[in-house]
Structure formats: C-alpha cells, structure tokens
Please model this.
Amino acid sequence: MAEERFHIAEWYGHDFHRMGDWDRVRHAQHKVGGATMSKAEIDRLATLEDKAVSGELSPSEGDRLTVLRDKLVRQQAEELPCPFRTDTPHATCTKPGGVCSIRVYREDEGRVEPISGERGRLRALCPWRFHQDGTAFSEVGRRLLNDPDPIKAGEVGFLESSGNLDSDPGEDVGRIDMILVKSNGVEGAPMDWVAVEVQAVYFSGKKMSIEFDHLLKTQGRISMAREKRRPDYRSSGVKRLMPQLQTKVPTLRRWGKKMAVIVDAPFFYSMGEMARERDVSNADIIWFLVDFFEDPNGSGFKLEIIEEVYTTLESATLGLTGGTPLSQGEFEARIRAKTDG
Model:
C-alpha cells in the first residue's frame, strides 16, 4: 500500500514540489533573521529617501540614510523575501525554517507526488500566508463594509492592563490582528470598521529541521518526509483561537461590531459542527474560508475565498471544542475501569 505523509507545500513562498534540487539545498541552508531590518528602520528609510529626492536632508539624516541603505543591501543579499506580506516594503521571511504551508504526499513505487482532492489541500502554517495580494482583506471589506479597498490597521491594542507585577497600568495586553476601516463612507459619518483575526495551524510532530538536514544529505532530491507530522487543530483552535474569540467578541458585540475570522477550509472543517445563521445580521462571527489553487503555469498557489459561514460566539465555541461529552454513566464507567483491581 502506498504511504502518505505531510511534507512541505510552500517554502519561502515557493512550490516545494516544483523547486529544483539545488534551490531546495539553498533553502535548507538558509538561516532566517540575521540581516533583517526592523519595520521602524524600513519606514525611516522610506522617509529619508523622500527627503533626499526633495533635497531636504540634513547632514545627520544623510549619514543615517547611508547606514540604512547599506543595511538594505545586506538584507537583500542575506535574507529571503516573503511574497505574501503587504504590510511593509522589502518584506522578508521572519519565520524560522520558512515553511509557509504543508500538504499530503504519497510515495508509490519510488515516486513521490502530492495527492489531489480535498485531502490534498494546503494547510497554512504561517499567518502571513493569508495576506497574499490583500485578497482576503479586500473580500472582508467588500462583504462587511461595502468597500473592497478598506484602510488597514494591524495589531491594534484592544485590552489594557490594570497594572500588576509584570505590566504597568494602561499597557497593551491584547491586540486584534487587523482592523479594516471603511474608506468610502460619507464624510463626517461615524467610523465604520470590522475586526479581523487570522489563524494558521500549528503542526504536531518532530521539528522540521530534520527534513532540512535530510535535503542537504541528498543534494535536495525530493523524498517522503523523514518524520510523521500532522496539523494540530486542537492546539490551534481550542488553545489559541477560542480564547481570542471569547475575550474579544463579547465587547465587539456590545459595540455592534462583527468579528471576521480568516482560516483555510481544512482548519474550519476539522472543527465540530457549528449551528449556522442564515443572515449576517444574526451572527457574531463571519468565517471566511480560503483555499489555495495551483497555477497551471507554475507560478505557485493563489489564495481565494471559497465560502462564508455565519455563526454566533456560542456555536463557534461548541464547534471549536470539537467533541461530544460522554454521559455521566459512561464517564464513571471509565473511572471504574481505571480504578478497579
């Protein structure tokens, strides 16, 4: 019987299966972050470049511009770009190992190929994967704000500390991933916005660097993954996403605002069944399910929104829990099985 295992789907934005052997070797050798500029440095570089064009640079600013240009040259030489990030110019991959997504491969008579169909879908490991071309955010804006080009505000503080041993009063202790603000509203009208959370999946299994080491030993030839891994929807959903929703949605609901959640379709359908609302007006959470479709011309995978689901917070919580409680009698029978004799 042919063996199936999860392995890399996209690596630093590239289709792992279609990559050349020596490109795989180069990626396996790469170490993330040694020359990455901070967002503040990138923003400052852009400001100083504008001032240089207009002839308004002071001598000290000219010196700083030279330093930042040198840093950018080093970053471009030593780091690998992230093709999905839209939050900053000159974006590089900051995820150790650079694995964007995974998929299932099958080995049959020595030939290793990704499988097709629903089980062959990509599972996104990196939240930046959902930012490709701004497609998902444009669709959220179009559907919930009637604006396909909303203003984006990332990582907006939502909860403030009241002060404790480890944080000062007023310090941000909770943020919303993205706020989309309607840009085409009537001047003077109240601000119209929607909150967005993006959730990738963690994987369960041994560290991915085992695969990188194997690629180096085999000169980049593709093979089945050395170790078994699987998407860990339990950790990603129950332990990470559910507390985020339970913390943020009640306040948003009091404000009359919606929460949009962007996940890939396999993530959503790994959860327990949720009661769906027929109309967005009755929902607290609007789930935007994405899938990634391979370009037949070999230019990688493109993100598309394939479905919207409307739920309340309560039904989402039940679905994320993803299990049906035993009856008390069944549970106590299990206790007796462990304690008798």
In short: The two ends are 42 Å apart (CA to CA). Residues 45 and 68 are 6 Å apart (CA to CA). The chain has a mean pLDDT of 91.
